[in-house]
Structures are given as structure tokens and as C-alpha cells.
Amino acid sequence: NRQVLLVEKPAGKLGPEHFKMAKATIPEPKDGEVLVRLRYISLDAANRAWMHGATYRAAVEANTVMAGGGIGEVVSSKAPGLAPGDIVFGDTGWQDYAAVPAKHLTKMPKVEPMTHLLSVYGIAGLTAYFGLLDIGKPKAGETVVVSAAAGSVGSIVGQIAKIKGCKVVGIAGGKDKCNWLTRELGFDAAVDYKDGAVFKALKAAAPNGIDVYFDNVGGDILEACLSQMNNRGRIACCGAISQYDGVPSAHGPRGVPGLIVVKRLIMQGFIVMDFMDQRDEALSDLQSWVASGKLKVQEDVINGLENTPKALIGLLAGENRGKRMVKV
Ligand code: NDP
């Protein structure tokens, strides 16, 4: 059983020196557990955030198998309700095999390609769906701005906002990603935050102001959006990737709480797990949009468990387009 261990929690930027490969025997599932053979491991910005300390989950610790979500096949089961051959999703860690309590796994439908269970029908798609529709509450004709727009969550947020009749502006790093958003995904405009002042470019891209901002990044980009929010606008706080890797900036965005008061803004954080009771309804919408071609699924699959650390480091640096995962 090959495993990727986190050998040390990074004080600054995450690097390959923080991980090492190890070998262990394939575990025997205990009562209530199943043995899962991993097929795909999900790479998430949050993997890095978990290294800072406990959040909505326990912190990841040094000298343990690196935590992370994965899709796999049940090999043997000591739990009712799961049988060999079933496809499951859960926090399996970065390894070939994991023995996991059945109550921590979600049985997944058999979908082709299986990778869609980690992208559009997985955490990324559901986060985009609930964060935009339940927290952002966009109305047709409104302007929606999304950051990390070419990433897994952001690329789906923008497309759902288009489906709902909104004007959509994406913020992403680099010309290529911006062109992809407007030419392939149907965004109305895109702002390259690596090319000069975001505030000015955003003003040109969203001349009528912003009604909904879906925030994946926090920091300076949140500050630039805050000042251009329309009265009674909504900010869906999904994540803060600009703060994850390295030492977070000393101060938060200016404009909080002043702009929230005068513009009567609603700024609300959310965790996708809170919406799982509505998952079937979301999946049925997502499936019909994918089937009709209204929602394009972009995946970035990297081969080999040994490449998982490099894949996460690259995701934090903006290498990925769409949902990044590793084929084990
Ligand atoms: P993505 O696929 O979106 O990849 C992350 C992207 O973030 C990179 O490709 C990069 O693109 C961009 N990025 C990196 N650093 C910065 C920076 N300093 N400023 C602006 N953009 C940056 O990753 P995920 O889908 O895993 O995560 C997206 C967000 O969603 C994260 O904030 C994550 O924490 C959040 N999330 C929240 C959930 C919830 O329940 N609330 C659930 C799942 C995810 P670029 O080239 O554009 O810089």
C-alpha cells in the first residue's frame, strides 16, 4: 500500500520537501469499516488550509497519511450497506488503499466518466451550486463576479450564473485562462488579476456594479469587489485561497464593515456539507445542464499517486484549469 505522508507542516510555502512516499501493508477493515481501493484523489485548495489548524474538520498532522477526498471501489466490507464493487467517496487520504468507517463514506452512482464524481457531481459542483444559488441568490439580469474563475468551483459558478440569465465576470490569473472563460465557457468578461490593477479592470468589465460576488480567494480581490458592490448585493464567501499558502496578510480587506453597512450587503460564509440534504435536487439540475451542453465540465487529471504533492503545489500556483485530480 503506497502512501504519501505529510512529514512536516509548512511554515511558509508548501513544497515537495513537506511530503514523502512510504509503504505499508494493506489494512484489514474492522467491524463497521470497508477496504477501499482508490481510483482518483481530489486535489483541493482546502488541503493546504487544513495544515493551518482545525476548521470544519480536524487539522492534518505531520507524519500521517496526507488527508484528502477520494473516489474508490470497495474491495471488502465489514459494514452493512456497502459491498465489494460499490463506488464510494470519502476522506480516504493519499494512498492506494484505505480502511474507512462506512459512516464516513458516501455511496456514489456508477457514472461515466467516473471523474465526474469528483468534479461536476462532486464537492466542486455542489459547492458552486449551493454557494451561488442559496447564498448568492442571483436574479436574471444581475451581474455576478466570481474569483478563481478558471478553477473547479469557479468555472461551474460562472456557467450556472449564465444559465440563470446573469451577466458574468470571471477573475483569473493569465490571459489564456481569461480567453478560455469568455470564448469557451460563455462568460461575458474576464479580468486577469495578474495583469495590473484589478479595481480598474473590474470597473470596465462590470460597469453597472456587482450584485453577487462569489469569493474563492479573499484578500485584495475581495477588497476590489467590495467597493464595487451594488446596494443590497450578496457576497458568498466560499474560500480564501490567497491566504492559504504562506503567511496570511496582516490585515483583512478594507471596507469591512463600513461598506457592508452603507450598501446593506449580505456577506455569508458556507460549507457545502451543510447542504447535503438537498444534494439530489442539485445533482438532477447539474445532470440536466451537462446533458444539454449548457454546462461544460473541465477536468485536469494527473497520473500517479507519487505526483499528488506536485499536483497540490501546482494547484496553489494556478497550474490547473477546472477540477484537478490524481489518477491513482
Ligand atoms: P481551484 O480548482 O479553484 O484551484 C485554485 C485556483 O485558485 C488556482 O487554479 C488559481 O488560479 C487560484 N489562485 C491561487 N492563488 C490565488 C491568489 N493568491 N489569488 C487569486 N487566485 C488564486 O481549487 P478548489 O476548487 O479546490 O478551490 C476553490 C475555492 O473553493 C477555494 O477557496 C476552496 O477553499 C473553496 N471551497 C470551499 C468549499 C466550501 O464548502 N466552502 C468547498 C470546496 C472548495 P489562477 O491561475 O486564477 O490564480
Structural overview:
- The strands form three sheets. Strands 3, 5, 6, 7, 8, 15 and 16 form a seven-stranded mixed beta sheet that branches. Strands 11-10-9-12-13-14 form a six-stranded parallel beta sheet, with helices on both faces. It has a three-stranded antiparallel beta sheet with strand order 2-1-4, with no helix packed on it.
- Helix 2 packs across helix 3 and helix 2 packs across helix 8.
- 25% of the residues lie in helices and 27% in strands.
- With 328 residues, it is an alpha/beta fold.
- The site of NADPH dihydro-nicotinamide-adenine-dinucleotide phosphate (NDP) has 33 residues, from helix 1, helix 2, helix 3 and helix 9.
List the keywords.
alpha/beta; binds NADPH dihydro-nicotinamide-adenine-dinucleotide phosphate; six-stranded parallel β-sheet; 328 residues; 9 helices; seven-stranded mixed β-sheet; Rossmann fold; Quinone Oxidoreductase, Chain A, domain 1
Structural class: alpha/beta
Count of runs of 4 or more consecutive helical residues: 9
Give a quick account of the main beta sheet: strands, pairing sense, barrel closure. 7 strands, mixed
Poorly predicted segments: none
CATH topology of the largest domain: Rossmann fold
Q: Ions, cofactors, ligands: which are bound?
A: NADPH dihydro-nicotinamide-adenine-dinucleotide phosphate
The helix fraction, in percent, is 25-40%
Morphology: globular
Domain module count: 2
Q: Report the CATH superfamily of the largest domain.
A: NAD(P)-binding Rossmann-like Domain
Measured on Cα atoms, how large is the radius of gyration?
20 Å
The first-level CATH class of the largest domain is given as Alpha Beta
Q: In the CATH classification, which architecture of the largest domain applies?
A: 3-Layer(aba) Sandwich
Average pLDDT figure: 96
H/E topology pattern: EEEHEEEEEHEHEHEHEHEHEHEHE
Strand content: 25-35%
Distance between the termini: 12 Å
> In total, how many beta strands?
16
GO molecular function: oxidoreductase activity, acting on the CH-CH group of donors, NAD or NADP as acceptor
Keywords: Oxidoreductase
InterPro entries: ADH-like_C, ADH_N_2, ER, GroES-like_sf, MDR_fam, NAD(P)-bd_dom_sf
Protein name: Enoyl reductase (ER) domain-containing protein
